[in-house]
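Write out this protein's structure.
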Amino acid sequence: MAQAWKCAGLRWAADGPVLSWVGGRRSALARGKRVAFGVAEGGVRTCVGARGHACPVRIGVPGRSTGARCEECARLDRAHSVAADTMADDPRPYRVYLAWFGPGLVKVGITAYERGAARLLEQGAVCFSWLGCGPLMAARRTEELLRAALGVPDRIPYAHKRAVRAALPESEAERAAEIAGLHARAVALGGWPQALTPEPFRGVDHAGVFGIEGAGRGPAAVAEVAELVAGGAIGGELVAAAGPDLHLATERGVVVLDTRLMTGWELVAAGGEPCAVPLRELRRAAGVQDGLF
């Protein structure tokens, strides 16, 4: 019987995306590499637990859930969370940033200074710039100020990010233009907390890191994996990766796999099996140029 592995999610290292597995194993994902796995017949997706602890009841979770947690573990995971505003006493410095995912898709957010750009890579930000640095609550107040003043959200659904990837401008300057303008408006605003130190605009572009620019970019994605299922399998050449998404060239065209759908399943190695998981047509933004990605 083939050995089964449980995926612990995708992480971004200095040299690219890495799949982590329960038990400590890691699989580096280089473009051009074949990624293939299946779910055993009769397999069940179970809750992944919370904050390093296993779910006490190992309850089943829906295949389409990107969190792979039961209601109680999801609640525990958000406890003591910066995102849920339950860590107001966190002493670490934080940075405020503007992130751009495609035309019209800009968000403001915060991340711990020590994490560097990891949070931006995990979110699939095509380009970004820091806005300022300071204590957590000063960073949070600045984030709220900019949300209201600039009219930008602090969250963007991954479906929207995928929809615009094929329509990205060609040059770094074009990709950075939107956040450059917003950065200038943000700096001109009054009311910034005194504890937050503003940072100048320096656009950081991830299109090359993700594999979605230049001569090496692949054909446009045509579908995305809706969920994994018992007995299903998927395999293909990795042509790009952005945030949690892997773009795999399969016999059905380029398919986007959100690696968050892999957690909670016991996965086995697959060979040349056809793409046998539920797919849905990838929503495309208006004006997408076929073949850009």
